[in-house]
Design goal:
The protein has 193 residues and is mainly alpha-helical. It has one domain. Helix content is 83%, strand content 0%. It contains 7 helices and no strands. It is globular and about 60 Å long. It starts with a helix and ends with a helix.
């Protein structure tokens, strides 16, 4: 039993590190590409492609499964409907990305607010029994403020600023996550020695 708990804990730690690395890389990419005039359109098109590819795969898989279960309503039927919806939305995003740019910027703002709140919860409650200093709360609070600014502004006029704010926030958040992990897990390094 202790081995299983240790294995789950190790997997959770690996997942946290992977998430932190991905957030950092996405943040750096957003900072590097913020000057492009059409960066939000490219992001919309990438999301559209991420809907089209699994949607097409799910559709083909569901059709193949449905041919084996003829005449009955099956899970394949609902998968076909969901995959067609993903395909339609993905193709729409690929064909007319400008339509989704404003929506994407507001989604970025909402993500910043929610991610900032999540970090505050992690710092305050999930890091117990450790009490972290006040400066660990600065980045999450600034993320919430940045998200509110994005949500309350006219996004059409500031695509580049939205991407830059999002990139800086993600990089700062990933650095803060590393510091949180190092500060709340000193016992692992002591126990391993």
């Amino acid at each position: 039993m202790p081995f299983e708990i240790e294995k789950v804990s190790t997997m959770k730690t690996a997942n946290n590190w992977l998430t932190t690395i991905i957030v950092f890389i996405v943040g750096v990419l957003l900072i590097v590409w913020h000057g492009r005039l059409d960066v939000l359109q490219w992001i919309v098109m990438a999301v559209g492609l991420m809907l089209v590819i699994p949607g097409a795969y799910s559709f083909i898989s569901a059709i193949a499964r449905r041919s084996h279960v003829q005449g009955e309503y099956s899970a394949a039927s609902s998968t076909i409907v969901a995959s067609l919806g993903a395909l339609a939305l993905g193709i729409w995003m690929l064909v007319t990305p400008a339509f989704f740019v404003g929506l994407l910027a507001y989604i970025f703002g909402a993500i910043l607010v929610l991610y900032g709140i999540f970090h505050i919860v992690v710092i305050r409650f999930w890091s117990s029994p450790y009490v972290l200093p006040w400066w660990f709360y600065v980045i999450p609070v600034l993320m919430i403020v940045a998200g509110v600014v994005i949500l309350c502004s006219s996004v059409r006029d500031m695509d580049s600023a939205v991407v830059l704010i999002m990139g800086i926030s993600l990089v700062a958040s990933s650095i803060n996550s590393v510091l949180e992990h190092v500060s709340t897990h000193p016992s692992r390094t002591r126990d391993a020695a």
